[in-house]
Amino acid sequence: MIAKFRQFIADESGATAIEYGLIAAGISVAIIAVVNGLGTKLRTSFSSISTQLK
After folding, report:
1. Cα gap 22→45, rounded to integer Å
2. Residue 34's pLDDT is what?
3. pLDDT at position 45, please?
4. pLDDT tens by residue, the chain, 54 residues
5. From the CA atom positions of the chain, what is the Rg in Å?
6. Burial class (CB in 10 A: 0-12, 13-18, 19+), 50
7. 23-32: which pairs have CB atoms within 8 A and are 24 or more residues apart?
8. What angle do CA 4, 8, 9 make, to 5 degrees?
9. What pLDDT is recorded for position 23?
């Protein structure tokens, strides 16, 4: 029983999975921020072009 407990304490695979999850979440937030910024710039550009064509 004590050997199983020590093995459980020494197992770090769960911590690694959490770290990868946090890295993926950070990358996702960065991608969303960039896409949101580009979307705003594109909307402004297309509105300007549309106004100039009228």
Report:
1. 35
2. 94
3. 92
4. 888 878 877 777 677 888 899 999 999 999 999 999 999 899 999 999 999 987
5. 24
6. exposed
7. none
8. 120
9. 96
Burial category of 6 from C-beta neighbours within 10 Å (exposed 0-12, middle 13-18, buried 19 and up): exposed
Token couple for 33: 């921020």
DSSP secondary structure, 10-50, as one string: H--HHHHHHHHHHHHHHHHHHHHHHHHHHHHHHHHHHHHHH
Which residue do the tokens 């695979």 mark? 13
33-46 burial code (b ≥16 CB/10 A, e <16): eeeeeeeeeeeeee
Q: Which residue has the tokens 């921020």?
A: 33
Q: Structure tokens of 51? A: 């106004």
**Residue that has been written with the tokens 């890295």 in this structure:** 23
